[in-house]
Design brief:
- With about 350 residues, the chain is α+β, with helices and mostly antiparallel strands.
- Helices cover about 25% and strands about 30% of the residues.
- The protein is built from ten helices and 18 strands.
- The strands form three sheets. Strands 1, 2, 3, 4, 5, 6, 7, 10, 11, 13 and 16 form an eleven-stranded mixed beta sheet that branches. A five-stranded mixed beta sheet has the order 8-18-17-14-15, with no helix packed on it. Strands 9-12 form a two-stranded antiparallel sheet.
- A hairpin with a 2-residue loop joins strand 2 and strand 3.
- The longest helix is centred in the N-terminal third of the chain and has 18 residues, at about 100-115.
- The radius of gyration is 21 Å and the shape is globular.
């Protein structure tokens, strides 16, 4: 395996920071007890050898989300297709049954226009004025082609789930979907130091009823999956590789339903580094942050009945993969029934203190 990958694993005594490099797994915890601190201070050498990558983790260890103290931020409506789908949700008022008709109307009216302009440009402003004149403007088009990107807080610190963990969808949602994304990892100085994969679960019915329900639609127990590892930037992998990455998605249901899709970063309307800059423009992040870059994937494939569109069912297997970032796989549950999030910042720090590792954080 080429490159350097950083992650976290749960052992009997608590979480450990691990590094995968040169075919070996190293436990970095005695040197840097948090991923946030390891990336901030560049403490990625040393540690205890845990064996060959091919042999897997030690018995009884399991993967966690590869981030800990970083804030979890996300950008939305960064692809033309997703912009159209957000407008559909808004006009459908969260009702999936009328989405197909609205979709055909909007694609014909605004699809080509928003694909052709650079957000924030004079051409984008002219398109905005034209759409306003036609009664076609939307708050989602404002963040799709206007100067300011949509940036929101996706999930509280330490609440993300990792590879093979259940992923949560609200039990009272009837129209929702996975969002396969590249997630940038940014240190406290604002430098993008690596990337990983993420699933920014989306509730189309909640946000469609009102954009003010965004937080309720996005932030629920187990609704944010990240992993499997952070691939650090080096001479062999960097931001240019992120810009051309393909992120593949497969959803497999217990009802024999199967859906596939691809999120192509080459089609993003805003450069990933611009998204990072906008996230940091008037905010600082002393423990660093991660940033979901958005997705062009907005599934329209019917699942149960014609015109009904797609929505998750309990038991869906969601697999997200990208050639140079690995594979993130989760099984859908309701957020109500998913394992409760119990290890917050205080509990995490108590665990490090009991192990004599607080000064290494």
């Amino acid at each position: 395996m080429d490159g350097t990958f950083v992650g976290r694993a749960q052992a009997a005594d608590g979480p450990h920071v691990i590094v995968l490099q040169d075919g070996r797994i190293r436990d970095l915890t005695a040197v840097a007890s948090t991923v946030s601190g390891a990336l901030a201070r560049g403490r990625l050498d040393g540690g205890d050898d845990l064996g060959a990558i091919a042999d897997g983790l030690p018995p009884g260890w399991s993967l966690l989300s590869p981030i800990d103290l970083q804030c979890v931020k996300a950008c939305g409506v960064t692809f033309a297709v997703s912009a159209i789908e957000r407008v559909i949700e808004e006009r459908a008022r969260g009702d999936a049954s009328v989405a197909a008709e609205i979709r055909s109307q909007l694609e014909e009216t605004i699809g080509a226009g928003i694909r052709a302009v650079v957000p924030g440009s004079a051409e984008a402003l002219a398109l905005k004025q034209a759409l306003i004149g036609q009664g076609m403007w939307s708050q989602y088009l404002e963040v799709a082609i206007g100067p300011d990107a949509e940036v929101f807080s996706k999930s509280p610190v330490l609440s993300t789930v990792g590879h093979e963990a259940p992923i949560g969808v609200r039990s009272d949602s009837s129209w929702n979907n996975p969002e396969p994304e590249v997630v940038l990892v940014v240190d406290p100085a604002g430098e993008v130091v690596g990337a990983t994969l993420g699933n920014d679960v989306n509730l189309r019915d909640f946000e469609g009823r009102s954009a003010l329900l965004l937080s309720k639609a996005k932030d629920n127990t187990a609704s944010c999956a990240i992993g499997p590892f952070i691939r650090l930037f080096d001479k062999g992998f960097g931001i240019d590789d992120v810009r051309v990455a393909d992120v593949e998605l497969v959803v497999e249901g217990q009802d024999n339903f199967r859906m596939e899709g691809t999120n192509r970063m080459t089609e993003i309307s805003r450069d990933p580094l611009d998204l990072v800059a906008q996230t940091m423009s008037e905010h600082s992040y002393p423990d660093g942050f991660v940033l979901f870059c958005g997705t062009l994937f907005a599934p329209t494939q019917d699942r149960d009945e014609p015109g009904g569109g797609f929505t998750h069912k309990v038991g869906d297997k969601v697999t997200i993969r990208s050639t140079r970032l690995g594979m993130l796989r989760n099984t859908v549950m309701t957020s109500r029934d998913a394992p409760k999030w119990t290890i917050g910042i205080a509990a995490f720090m108590r665990n490090l203190a009991e192990r004599g590792l607080v000064e290494k954080a």
